[in-house]
Amino acid sequence: MDYDQFNEFCGAFPATSHVIQWGDAHVWKVGGKVFAIGGWNKESGAAFTFKTSDLNFDFLSDSEGYRPAPYFASRGMKWIQQVETSGRLDEELQYYLKESYRLVALGLSKKKRGELGIVIDG
User: Which InterPro entries match (predicted)?
Assistant: First the structure.
């Protein structure tokens, strides 16, 4: 996945906004809260960062092509960075981006989700 594909995918979720910040990173938000970041891998080019469940964080932290996200994970947050961007893990990335959106949207109040027209199951 490249940044254009990443931006197209993230932009398809309801009530999202996109900003460029933190050194040219593509930052996607729902209700003003970050759910995905394209950028930030200074060592080897493209990288995609997303929020995960505790279980997925533990699993992905030891999986090839992933690492605990710099800055976020060091502060105890369950965020992972996918650094393998050759396309081999694109389907997985799409799943984890959807899950990150869901987790962040669930963190919004019911009132806020209603105002934004976001309907999330569990």
Answer: YjbR, YjbR-like_sf, YjbR/MT2646/Rv2570-like
Task: Check residue 3 and give left, alpha or beta (phi > 0: left; psi -120 to 50: alpha).
Answer: alpha
Going from the C-alpha of 96 to that of each of 26, 81, 103, 104, 111, the distances in angstroms are 17, 11, 10, 12, 25
The percentage of residues in the chain with a pLDDT greater than 70, rounded to a whole number, is 93
Report H helices in the chain. Answer: 3-11, 54-61, 90-106, 110-116
R_g (Cα) of the chain, nearest Å: 14
Residue 95 makes CB contacts below 8 A (sequence gap 6+) with none
SS3 78: coil
Q: How far apart are CA 87 and CA 22, in angstroms?
A: 25
Residue 102 in contact with residue 72, Cβ under 8 Å? no
Residue 99: which residues within 8 A CB-CB, separation 6 or more? 50, 52, 53, 56
In one-letter notation, the amino acid at residue 19 is V
H helices present in 12-89, as ranges: 54-61
